[in-house]
Every structure is written in C-alpha cells, then in structure tokens.
Automatic annotation (TrEMBL):
It catalyses: ATP + protein L-histidine = ADP + protein N-phospho-L-histidine. It is an enzyme of class 2 (transferase). PANTHER family: SENSOR HISTIDINE KINASE CPXA. The chain crosses the membrane at residues 64-87, 99-123. One of its GO terms (molecular function) is ATP binding. GO terms for cellular component: plasma membrane. Residues 181-398 form the Histidine kinase domain. This is histidine kinase. Its EC number is 2.7.13.3.
Amino acid sequence: MRNEVIRYSKEINSRIIIIDNDNKVKVDSREEFIGDTFKHEEVQKALKGNSAANIYNYKEYGRLMYTSVPIILNSKIIGAALISTSIDNIYSRVEDIENALYIISFISTLFIALISFILANIFSKPIKKFTNAIMNMAKGNLNQRVDIDTNDEFSQLASAFNIMSTKLDQVDIQRKDFVANVSHELRTPLSSIKLLSESLLHQDNAGVEIYREFLTDIDSEIDRLNNIIDDLLTLVDLDKERLNLNYKVTYVNYLLEKIITRLKPIADKKNISISYKAEEKLQINLDKDKIQQSIINIVHNAIKYTPNGGNVEVKLHSDGKNVVIEISDDGIGIPNKDLEHIFERFYRVDKARTRNTGGTGLGLSIAYQIVTLHQGKIEVESEVDKGTTFYIKLPIDTNMV
Ligand SMILES: Nc1ncnc2c1ncn2[C@@H]1O[C@H](COP(=O)(O)OP(=O)(O)O)[C@@H](O)[C@H]1O
Ligand SMILES: [Mg+2]
C-alpha cells in the first residue's frame, strides 16, 4: 500500500496522505507525517463521508490545493485520503494569461487610437479645410483656396472647389468694376448738367443767347446719359437673352446696304466717303436686329475715329467657313497696347477725345457679345495714324439650322 501510494503520488505530481478514523496519519507519500494527528477541516469532512477541496496560500510552499475523500470499505468509512497539490504553476499560468490580456488590450487600445487618429486626419482635416473656406466665402471673401495634397477624391474636390472660387472671385471683381464704372460714367454728365444749370441760375440778366447755349450743352449731356443708359440696357438684355436669339435666314448684303444708308448722313457731316463692296450675295441665319446693331457700332466708330475727309470701306466676302464683314478706315488708329482691351466695357483709348464724340465705351463690348452669341469672331488690325480694320466673322454652317 505504501509503495503504491508513493508511485501514484508521483504520477499525479501530488502529495498523498492516508489518515485513519482516529485522525492518525498512516501513510504519507513523503514519509514525513506518519503517526501525526491531522485534524484539517478537509480530513474531518472526509471522515464524515464527504469529499472536500480548499486552496491555501503558504509562505513556504506557495499555493496548495487540499482535496480529501473518504476511504470506504464495506460501506464503512475507515479513513480519509488527503491529496495536496501545488497549484502555483496554474496560478502563474493564469497570471501569464492575465498579463498577456493586459498587454493585448493595451496594444489594441493604442492601435484603435492610432487608427482613429489616422481616420480623423483623413476625413475630418479636409472637411475642416472646406468648411473654413466655405465660411470665409459666405462672409464675402471669395478668393479662397483649399490645399489638399493627398491623391484622392478630396484633392479632386479641392481643385474643383478652387476653380469655382477663382471664377466667382473674378466675376465679383468684374461686377464691382462694372458698378464703379457705371457710377462714374453716369456721374460725369450729371455733374456737367448740375454745373451748367447752377451757373445759369447765378447769372442775373443773362440774355436769351446765353440760355440757349447753356441749354444746348445741357441737352447734349442728357443725350449722353441716354446713350449710356441705352447701351447698359442692351448689355443687360444680352445677358438675359443668352440663348434666345431670334434667328432668321438673312441676306447680309441687304443688311449692310441698310446700315450704310442709315449712317451716310453722319459720314457726310464729316465729309467722309463711305463705300460698300460685296463679292457675292451671302445669306446666313442670324438675329437681324442684333447683328445690325453690332455692325452699326463698328461702322459708326470708323466714322467717329476718322478725321474729316477720310474714307471708310465696308466689304463683304466669304472665306468658305465664315461670312466676313470687313470695315476699314484711314483714321487715327489704335495703339498696340490698347488693342487687346478695346472690347472691354467702358474701355476707351483716349477718354478726353471720346467724350467729345459722345462715346460710351460700350459699343465694342456690345458688338463683341452679339457676335460671340452667334458663334462668330471679331478681329482687328490697326496702325496709329494709318487706320483700322475690323473683321466680323459669322460662321456659315453652324448658323444654318
Ligand atoms: N475705328 C477705330 N479707330 C480708332 N479707334 C477706335 C476705333 N474703333 C474703336 N476705337 C477705340 O476703341 C474704343 C472703344 O470703342 P467703343 O466700345 O465703341 O467705345 P466708344 O463709345 O468710345 O466708341 C474707343 O473709345 C476708341 O478709342
Ligand atoms: Mg463706339
């Protein structure tokens, strides 16, 4: 029995102690307590027929688990077996697992924090940039740029946004310039009228002749105001009617003849000869009233900016793709540096001189806009003191609907 207990205790790596009914140790696998009295709680329970198990933590031995079972022979309890097993290694395993869990949860917390930081950067940073830019635009600062240098949809959105804000900014600058120009242009004749009428009012006993002279000046300033307002209204109409041209198949020859008949008296006043040559009869689809207005503006300019006794020629031909209306004069010409600006609203090469001729500075921009609406082009060649030639090119094909 003793040997068997020792062998078995080795097998299960535990100490086995057998105790008899009188609490006396009979067998101890380590042979240390033989003959001692054991009154452990587990032993008492086992001797009463119940098995028991408890864990103790001893300073010298570490954690031990005591398990006891009654030894029964012929239905009688004859003793108890107490098995003491060291469970320190189990505890250390559990501790290891616990530590590993701590480390894993620490690392995953770090990892989650890192991922959320990266995601926050990817998504919220650009959105913040957009929000700031949009809020600034809402405050009226339209020149906003969003710089995103990642290579994804956000950077595509940013470049689209930047194109939009630049366009809006340009339009806004143009609008402000236009309003400033309009106010200035309207104020000039108004202040002349005010000045003229005030000086009349302050003159005692002014003769009828003086009145007539001043009123003639006032009348011509009012004409100027009317011209500016008419031109402005035309521009407003052109903006509104963008795609609403009243196309009709029209002979350009008749149109030109009509325009020349209309402007001849003005040319005659300056002793300017105005000639017309057409190589062929050409008809295209156009908005007659509008094209007529743009040609009048250009022919009128040719007369205005040509000294007395000069020549204005109007020619019509086709270059295969376009109907070309050529208007040339031997007048004052346009300096090279001004050529690229003459189609801008209110642009005049010589402000003082054009004031005398009653120009508004809007004629060419109206002409340009009308021809552009017809998918056409206006080109200009000029030499100072030699003369100027304007080419109005209206497409033949695209117009024929
Ligand atoms: N045939 C031309 N010869 C010389 N200068 C011209 C001619 N046509 C236009 N210009 C210049 O272009 C400017 C713009 O023309 P336009 O828009 O018709 O305004 P304006 O009302 O002054 O005639 C004119 O002020 C003038 O300086
Ligand atoms: Mg003009």
